Amino acid sequence: xxxxxxxxxxxxxxxxxxxxxxxxxxxxxxxxxxxxxxxxxxxxxxxxxxxxxxxxxxxxxxxxxxxxxxxxxxxxxxxxxxxxxxxxxxxxxxxxxxxxxxxxxxxxxxxxxxxxxxxxxxxxxxxxxxxxxxxxxxxxxxxxxxxxxxxxxxxxxxxxxxxxxxxxxxxxxxxx
Length: 176
Known about the structure:
Layout: H1 15-45, H2 50-75, H3 82-95, H4 108-136, H5 144-173
Helix pairs in contact: 1-2, 1-3, 1-4, 4-5
């Protein structure tokens, strides 16, 4: 058993802190749920292209990341708040209703907006993994090495999504 105050001591977490962490992790789960739906839809819209292949890979990785988050929530005894998961799912569906210059078909702007939203979502995931990495310094229920792998992968996803976003913007608006 770790000594009180040691890096792996879980006892310093107060009920209020645990509740805040639960809210935080459920918010990230809602974002992961919406992001997963979004990346799957975007991958389908680009099926058969190099962008589609990249997005399919990210969809698989984001699904794995979402499962990793659920694993950590279980390890921390954080209950899943279904209403937040449903809100994340519904938010992605509502995002499709924005005016984009086309009424019944996919707009050329759709790809750019989706890539921007995915990039922002992955940046949020990077922040979430960093936060959990800091929590892991004093909570042995979290696997530091796993978090470092997840953080590295999320950073790579963000960089690659930025490249896709930039290329899409240049194709849509020209480079000058």
